Amino acid sequence: MAQTLHDNLTPRHSVVFNTLLAFVVIISVSLLSMLGSLYMADALQGDAAALNQAGSLRMQSYRLAMTARSGDMQQLDRHIAKLEETLVAPALQSALSRHSRTELPARYTLAVEHWKEVMHPLISVRPPRIDDYREEVGSFVDELDALVKSLQEASESRLEVIRGLQVGTLFIIVIIAFLLIYGLHNNLATPLRTLTAIARDIGRGQFNRHIRVDGDTELSLLARTINQMSQELAGLYADMEDKVHAKTLELQHSNSSLQLLFDSARMLYGQPDDPSQIMGHMLAKVQGVLGCGPITLCLNQPSEAGSHTAMTSQDMLPPNYCNLPKCDSCPALQDNGQLPDGRQLLSFSLRSGPTELGSLRVEQRRGHELDSWQKQLLETLADLFAASLSLSHQSRQQASLALMEERAVIARELHDSLAQALSAQKLQLARLRRQMLKDCSSEELGATLEQIEQGLNAAYRQLRELLTTFRIQVNAPGLKPALLATVQEFSQHSGVAIELDYRLDHCPLTPNEEIHCLQIIREALSNVIKHAQASRCNIQLQQDSHGTIDIRIEDDGIGIGEAISPGGHYGLSILHERAASLHGTLAISNRNVRGTRVWLRFPPQYRHIPLVQETTP
Fold it and tell me: Which segments does the entry list as coiled coil (predicted)?
């Protein structure tokens, strides 16, 4: 009997085996196609280089004519040698051997013979026969074009073979996939849908259905097992259902309350800018969880009397008893919250410290008090709403303060740099006008104009620095992202290896300090790239034990002769001015081994410390 049952539970036809076999066939065909494509791709290796070499011959032919016209015979000989070297380049020779059965070798032979018999004698004689060469170069370039075209056609013919192989493989795979899908639909999908349906019924507690799957496969075995399991679960489920139902009722209130609080917190803190509308949309859900009467939310403006918004859980509109903005006559503040229709208003204040931001009110029929868990939930929601409103108000205040501080920094930068430079040029123009009225000499006028030009160049340079500073794009606020973007910018366009050692993550610098530090570092990096002839540069930012900010920019270049800006160049002067704006010091000196060191030290504003003078090591 047991042996018979075991035989009945053993499938004779395996759906899994048949499916795996089909996939093995598909993978095998795909692998063979890939190997064939790789073989053909290897045959095309080097054609791109050959095309580049052949195409460069046309440019070299015209370059010979231009070089011969200039009269530089040594340069001409080098270009002739370069062209002949390109004619016999390994890439071209390899392409000729790969495409020996095409017309490519004949085209190549014609081009080489044309060069050796016609073009080379015309250009190699002394003096070169430039006019004859220029008349002949057109036909020579046509032969080179034909050579390039032949090489391109040979490569494309190989690509056509690869394309055909891929199309054939795709066709075979589609046929096998169609057969596989057809078999899976009949032997797997249809029985599986039936099994899924009965499994869904079992999950719903319906154990009276039975399933029959024809054939002798894994799914038929699974169907017989499910039928047996369904009969056994029918008895167990009846006993467990009563216990589960009792436990569910016990946990329902706690679960719904926690879920409501979680959803409320996630929605409010996910959109802190305007939480009032989110609160209004949540009122209906709160009423559904509590199972009470309509809920009203009244919101006050901080530090102002009266409400500015009132909405109910029914229609998001003020309740019928509301007389906004006449809040003094609100029934919630009179007669213990009694309404004319006999209902009573229970209020829960929204407070943030001593400030009352509004209230959460529930309409209940007289004699129907709220349960303790309902009151606790409403009090928690009121605290949550108050915290969200307070955070939104603080966020708006911080945004306004940040905007005002940023505008102040921009105004200060314009006043300290560009405005002063333009004011100086205004005085220079007045001086030039007086000189012109006095008929001064051209030398005096020229000297004044030169000073005006230098001043305008300095002003334009300062303007570019300001634009660069204010346009720096970073993904996060602060000095570190701006420095990372600066290092990436200068590294990509200079070839100098720039390393950044940033240790000021714990220092809250002001926007003004960040701008000055960034501009000093950018100016120092610009000087390194333009004048130092360095290969490496290291930027280090740290804070010493006294709280002083220490910034060093060191390179391994040729060093600096003197740390004074020459006439008409204001880079080093601007560095010292920016250091002075930070109430700090800037030292520029040669390193002991090789290169230059720019050393900036200043006390951060948040510490309010005096700068401790130290000698440059």
Answer: 415-469
